[in-house]
Amino acid sequence: MHPIAPSRPAAVMAVAASLLAACGTGAGGATVQGVRLVGTGVLTTCTHLPYAPFQFERRGTVVGFDVDLMDLVARRLKLRQKVVDTDFTAITSGQVFAGGECDVAAAGMTINRRRASKVDFSRPYFNSGQVLMARRQPRLTSKDIAGDGLRVGVVAGTTGQEYAQARGWTLKAYENSVTELGALRTGQVDVLVQDDPVVRYWLTDADNADFTIVAGLRTREQYGFAVRKARNPGLLRLIDQVITQSRDDGAYRRIYEKWMGPMPPGAG
User: Domain boundaries in the chain?
Assistant: First the structure.
């Protein structure tokens, strides 16, 4: 005697159940250890290249401080990390998450209220601040910039741009940090506003020996990783755990000193 074939509604429910089971084992849109993922077998990270030493390409591979920290998160999930280059404003607006492009954003991104209304931030993982970079001679100060209407380079969509705009400086906005630096080196701007660790990394390059930090702007910013607003609390908790553990077990210091040199007291 053959079993009675299931009714159509029952068959549909069986298919749905099988799909849900697949989602729990690594299919696209899977949940792994309570973390929702947009891809199969990977943790997909959106960033904005280049932004050395946090993320940049070296011999065809994206490397950097943020990449190494996010690798720790991927390992906890027993996954590999896939890095996707995206527009910075698409990250801060949450567009990359709404469009299903990534699970997390790691882009040397300052935590502030405006951005936090669009994305959920991890606990802070890096202390930073804005500085002014210009040629060593003639020596400039922030007063010179305000008084003489000097041309100031910024990266579009950043807190550096917001800081300069609030002071009424004459701005030229660039798509990324490399084009901003290039504008300073070729005389398109007189000074640029950029994050302190990025400028210090640039100044280790002999090609930038004619430039220096002319002023620190005391903005006291903190970077955070971001996930989709109110949609991925499991991933947010895991990132926070990894940040804390990396500081406790020395992994954070090793990553810091790999990309930035000796780690000063209170850094991170």
Answer: 32-127+222-260, 130-219
Domain 32-127+222-260 matches domain 130-219 at the CATH topology level: yes
213 touches 140 (CB < 8 A): no
Alpha helices in the chain (DSSP H): 8-23, 65-76, 88-92, 95-98, 113-116, 142-148, 159-166, 177-185, 196-202, 233-249, 251-260
Query: How far from 191 is each of 175, 180, 198, 199, 211, CA to CA, in Å?
Result: 16, 10, 15, 12, 10
Domain 130-219 classification at class level: alpha beta
CB hemisphere CA count around 119 (13 angstroms): 30
The Cα 255–Cα 87 span in angstroms is 26
d(CA 33, CA 55): 27
Answer for the pair 153, 172: CB distance below 8 angstroms, yes or no: yes
Name the token pair of 118: 């669009």
Please list, in sequence order, all residues whose beta carbon lies within 8 angstroms of the beta carbon of residue 27, skipping any fewer than 6 positions away.
40
pLDDT tens, position by position, 160-182:
999 999 999 999 999 999 999 99
Lowest mean per-residue pLDDT among 135-139, 153-157, 198-202, 209-213: 135-139
Task: Record the pTM.
Answer: 0.85
- What is 32-127+222-260's CATH number? 3.40.190.10
